[in-house]
Amino acid sequence: MQSIEGKTIVVTGASSGVGAAAVKKLFERGALVIPVGRSHSRTAAIAKEIGVKPYTADFMSLENVRELANKLMQELPHIDILVNNAGGIPAQTGATVDGNEPIFQVNTLSPLLLTLMLTPHIQKNKGRVINTSSRSHKGASIDKQDWQKTAGLRSHAVYARSKLITGMLFREYYRRYGIEFADFHPGLIRSDFGRYMGVYASILKTVFAPFLSTPAQGAETLIHLAETKDRLDGRYYVRKQEAKGNLLLEDRLLAGWLWEECYKKLHLIGAE
Predict the structure, then answer these.
(1) Burial class (CB in 10 A: 0-12, 13-18, 19+), 211
(2) Please, are residues 234 and 182 in contact by the beta-carbon 8 Å criterion?
(3) By three-state DSSP, how is residue 133 classified?
């Protein structure tokens, strides 16, 4: 393993759960950790604990993401590791201000936009990108004719598809830019489990309690990927070990097509 002491690490989704746990663990190892969260108060509390400035952004707004990226580039000389941990299933069901399906924008478009904008800063020190994925992506599929379909799908199916698309896009990013990348499944996290399951959440939490991980346990693979000397070459990890992901993760033709489509949605000129 390599030391991350003095490394500049940006962590999104840092105000709670795995993100907050990762911020503390990375700080304990001597890294300069930059927490980014949606909630200003919670992100500020985390930032205060480690003596840094908090950054906030709502991934439901691409303009918010652009503003965040510009601030980070202005205020940081470089970025050694970008951790795209923000995501989930937003409560909003209607289109975002950008006209996108909310789950897709929060889990796919916004992290991709942030990463693309920060790429010059990541390249300066030959940095790496680490994404929080989900095991649910393994059960998802993509139909090019209707790849953003939501009718008749439960929110968790849309979420799983968004994680699959994100995984495909970031492997395409790795191929195009050569920046080290890996994603990982943190496990079922106690603090998050059942958040979107309404009245059944408390019952399910009791039933599944023995199988749930703490946020600190969920962050262990993230820390491993930050510290490993091995080159991160687009693989998927579970419990610090390489694992098998959805076969579509290796579909380069489909990934290239998705890249073009998402570039249009991000209002970027020409797919690089």
Answers:
(1) exposed
(2) yes
(3) coil
Q: Tens digits of per-residue pLDDT, 181-222?
A: 999 999 887 765 455 444 555 565 666 667 788 999 999 999
**CATH topology (fold) of 8-187+216-265:** Rossmann fold (3.40.50)
Domain boundaries, the chain: 8-187+216-265
Residue with tokens 């202005």: 74
For the entire predicted model, the pTM comes to 0.93
Whole-Å CA distances, 191 to 35, 126, 187, 188, 201: 19, 34, 11, 9, 11
pLDDT tens per residue, range 231-267:
999 999 999 999 999 999 999 999 999 999 999 999 8
In this structure, the dihedral spanned by the alpha carbons of residues 100, 102, 108 and 114, taken in order and rounded to 10 degrees, is 80
| Rounded Cα gap, residues 57 and 240, in angstroms | 29
- Token pair belonging to 206: 């009791």
User: Could you list the active site residues?
Assistant: 159
First to last CA, the chain: 33
